[in-house]
Each structure stands twice: as C-alpha cells, then as structure tokens.
Amino acid sequence: MIHINNTNLQHKFVLKKQILQKLKDTTLLTFISVDTGIKFTTLKRQVKENHEYLTLYAVLYSISQRLNKPINSLICSQKDY
C-alpha cells in the first residue's frame, strides 16, 4: 500500500506510463484543469515531463475520478519508472 499525503514530493512518485498515455487526450486534460484549477498549459507541460507535481492529491484525485481507477493504480515510485 502506497501512503499518499498532500504533497508526495519527498516520496518521488510519478505517474505510470499507461496513465501518461491517456493524459495526452486534450479533453481529459481540460477536465483535470477545471477540476484542479491548474492551467491547461501547465498540466500539458507536466504530463510531457511526467513531473512529480502530477502526484499532488488534487491532481491524482481528479485523474482517478476521470479514469475511474483507484489512486494507487496511477502511480509508481520514481526509481521503478
């Protein structure tokens, strides 16, 4: 079980490759932008880089809801990526 807190920055989690592929859909990314208040262009750049900020709880929760997947199935540790 992966422990998720509000930032996750000290844990160095990143999104799994198959989730990143799904996030290339601009419609899905637009919904996540609306859900989280993060600019679409910022999210698009972060998806391209698989930036660790994508593992912030609000973003993970939105992705989880939009893809109908549990949060734990979206991420992996950076060393396993």
Protein architecture, described:
- The protein is built from 4 helices and 2 strands, in the order βααααβ.
- It has 81 residues and is mainly alpha-helical.
- The protein has one domain.
- A two-stranded antiparallel ribbon has the order 1-2.
Please summarize what this structure is.
By secondary structure, the chain is mainly α. The chain contains 4 helices and 2 strands, in the order βααααβ.
What is this structure's SSE topology?
Blueprint: E1 13-15, H1 17-22, H2 26-36, H3 40-49, H4 57-67, E2 75-77
Antiparallel strand pairs: 1-2
Helix pairs in contact: 2-4
Key traits:
4 helices, 2 strands, mainly alpha, 81 residues
- Please state the structural category: mainly alpha
Rounded to the nearest angstrom, the distance between the terminal CA atoms is 17 Å
Domains counted in the coordinates: how many?
1
SS field, number of helical segments: 4
Q: Which range does the strand content fall in?
A: 5-15%
What's the total number of strands? 2
Global shape: globular
Order of helices and strands: EHHHHE
How big is the Rg? 11 Å
